[in-house]
Amino acid sequence: MERRVGEFELIRRLAGRVGTAGSASPVRVGIGDDAAVTSHRGLTATSVDAIVEGIHFRRDWSSPDRIAARALAVALSDLAAMAAEPGEAYVTLGVPPESDPGFLELLADGLADAADTHEVVLAGGDTVASPALFLAVTVVGYAPEDEQFLMRSGASAGDLVGVTGILGGAAAGLMLLESGGEIKPPGPAVRDALISRQLDPEPRIEAGRALRGSGVTALIDLSDGLAPDLGHVAASSGVAIELEASLVPVQTGVAAVAASAGADPLRLAIAGGEDYELAMTFPSGRRPAIEHALEAAGSGLTVVGEVVPGAGVRLTLDGSPLPLPAGFDHLN
Amino acid sequence: MERRVGEFELIRRLAGRVGTAGSASPVRVGIGDDAAVTSHRGLTATSVDAIVEGIHFRRDWSSPDRIAARALAVALSDLAAMAAEPGEAYVTLGVPPESDPGFLELLADGLADAADTHEVVLAGGDTVASPALFLAVTVVGYAPEDEQFLMRSGASAGDLVGVTGILGGAAAGLMLLESGGEIKPPGPAVRDALISRQLDPEPRIEAGRALRGSGVTALIDLSDGLAPDLGHVAASSGVAIELEASLVPVQTGVAAVAASAGADPLRLAIAGGEDYELAMTFPSGRRPAIEHALEAAGSGLTVVGEVVPGAGVRLTLDGSPLPLPAGFDHLN
Fold first, then answer.
1. Which residue, B302, B325, B314, is CA-closest to B239?
2. What are phi and psi of A173, to 5 degrees?
3. Is B57 helix (H, G, I), strand (E, B) or coil?
4. Contacts of residue B139 in chain A, CB cutoff 8 Å?
5. What's the rounded Cα separation, in Å, for the pair B196 and B253?
6. A85 touches chain B (CB under 8 A)
7. What tens-digit pLDDT sequence spans chain B (332 residues)?
């Protein structure tokens, strides 16, 4: 039982990349002591997430820098879902003792690059031996002065339900990767777009930021899938949500992949998961302002349903009740 | 590639255990939204740590509640090493899909119990599928108003070097566990004490708290071992540390275990690791006050060396230079 990880130390590699935090940053002491030291006022949002080799990523599907970027993006998506400003990230890297040091260095560099992209300070990290490679990420975000975070719990009956972006691509991309070429997408560009949606998720930080003060009553990111995640909003808010299947925006190629695989295309779009878009509820009168704010943030809004009294998520197709796809009984 | 973990969700189990945080707590929203929300002023210390099955623990060595308590204790030790007040903890649990739900429930309950013991709020968590069971823990601590944390970087030539508690027990306990009964300790009570030192580490939070304002110039917890961890202090402070082997306090039974295993007893005591005591430097004039403060905190102080100009850790035995045990060349 060898507990040491050999020569590779994530924090040493990162410490070489990460400069001293600027005076505007709340990070007073970053990598190198027993703990990172920060100083800030106001509200702080903290979320933890992890990706594990063989479960959430595979080395034959993705490069180390993309794997690292995905780990950070998935964690940051939770901050976007609070309309928080990203602040610091802390990473625990679990490393099989026989790992290729070059792979791990690229992973660490990818982490540092992704942190730069999202303007997050990598303030701490740890490397432990592990039979399976994993990255456990903690992210901390802030509310600008006098602002509140957007929670899951404020949806009211009568509110509309909206979603950013287009859905189902990440799940279809995963099916393509897992099929090893057996499923035929409509063409190489569509294939690449679907696979990239799975491998390179983008946290909707700009969209979350744009929704501050917009009248949004509940906000969540789509990690489990539109229907399950709206189920979380419904449960937190004490309401039911009616989701109209015909309104759900679906990525090009998702239907073709589903058809080729004998899968239910609706299931991919409403319960595929990992699209990391944002879903929200809001009073109908705020719709124009929210559409405008999301467009200005490079995103967009599609209204897909409404909040009603009751509990759980109900699916409709052109207004008629539709049973939830198999495996989603737990939503009600 | 099944990404879901079946029925067990750490956060659901913990949410059932953890009450709403009290009004004195900085936790405004704990488990249940996209991120936990805290509100606090002053300095914050954040540290991440993880323990992995087969590397840091084994189910045939320890019960789920002890494994969970160990994960939290190891993380909290980093806060003790900053003289921080423990605040919140966030846990990511990596779970093999075929795990026994009863085992996981006991693990979650053990985590909640340990959080109660150390007066830490479990403010968030995540459960992910993983081939290897792991617990990745993030802990956040606070500095009381107008207080500073104690860092590794303030040691000066002329300072004394001290350590709390007795050393080598955790490493000897690990040797006993790994030998499967082949190594014979002096007796069952000694055996149990050594093994407990390995399986049930205690973060020295009280001792760290007692050292605030005491004149300590550098503080660190002993995770890697006395000599390697003093090496971190030396490097951070830009000094050398002379460590006198004859002064190092060694737990009863460590020498016997080492003799039985043909190991170097000195190596267990100065480089065994995982004792999670605190090592510190201070001007000699502060020694009586520090001894008194540590005794009042239920701990104690042993002076084991001094800070000198230079770099690295130098070992002496009765004042004469002693080569570092094999494998510790990297300290200099």
1. B314
2. -60, -40
3. strand
4. 35
5. 13
6. no
7. 456 555 566 767 777 665 444 556 788 888 888 899 888 778 999 999 999 999 999 999 999 999 999 999 999 999 999 999 999 999 999 999 888 989 999 999 999 999 999 999 999 988 999 999 999 999 999 998 878 899 999 999 999 999 999 999 999 999 999 998 888 878 999 999 999 999 999 999 999 999 999 999 999 999 999 999 999 999 999 999 999 999 999 999 999 999 998 888 888 999 999 999 999 999 999 999 999 999 999 999 999 999 999 999 999 999 999 887 655 544 43
Among all residues of chain A, which has the CA nearest to that of B54?
Answer: A1
Q: Does A35 contact B149 at a Cβ distance shorter than 8 Å?
A: yes
User: A34 CB near a chain B CB, below 8 Å?
Assistant: yes
Inter-chain touch A50–B136, beta carbons under 8 Å: yes
Tell how strand B312-317 and strand B240-244 pair up: parallel
Task: Judge whether B73 and B127 are in contact, CB under 8 Å.
Answer: no
Q: Are B321 and B308 in contact (CB under 8 A)?
A: no
CB contact under 8 A, B45 and A32: no
The full length of chain A comes to 332
Summarize pLDDT for A290-314 with one digit per residue, the tens: 999 999 999 999 999 999 999 999 9
* Residue A225 confidence (pLDDT) above 60: yes
Residue type, A195: I
- Locate tokens 């799975």: which residue? A198
CA–CA separation, B310 and A130 (whole Å) = 36
Cβ B120 vs Cβ B86: under 8 Å: yes
User: What part of A 41-60 touches B (C-beta under 8 Å)?
Assistant: 41-56, 58
* Cross-chain Cβ contact A51/B1 below 8 Å: no
CB B72 within 8 A of CB B120: yes
Mutate to test the interface with A, among B33, B58, B146, B198 (most CBs of A within 10 A): B33
Q: Which residue has the higher pLDDT, A301 or A328?
A: A301
Quick check: helix, strand or coil at residue A151?
A: coil
A47, B41: Cβ pair inside 8 Å?
A: no
**Distance between CA atoms of A80 and A82, rounded to whole angstroms?**
5
Residues 129-158 of A with CB under 8 A from B: 129-132, 134, 136, 138-141, 149, 151-153
| Distances A205 to A82, A214, A218, B6 between C-alpha atoms, Å | 9, 15, 16, 30
Non-local (6+) Cβ contacts of A324 within 8 A are A227, A313, A315, A331, A332
Opening angle at CA A142, ends B137 and A160, nearest 5: 105
- State whether B124 and A40 contact (CB < 8 Å): no
Taking an 8 Å cut-off on Cβ atoms, the answer to whether A48 and B78 are in contact is no
- What SS3 state is found at B39? strand
* CB-CB under 8 Å, B56 with A3: yes
Query: Is A81 in CB contact (< 8 Å) with chain B?
Result: yes
Q: How far apart are CA B166 and CA B251, in angstroms?
A: 5
With tokens 């859905």, the residue in question is A167
Q: How far apart are CA A228 and CA A223, in angstroms?
A: 9
**CA dihedral of residues B331, B299, B293, B148 (deg, nearest 10):** 50
Residue from B45, B11, B137, B177 nearest A94 by CA: B137
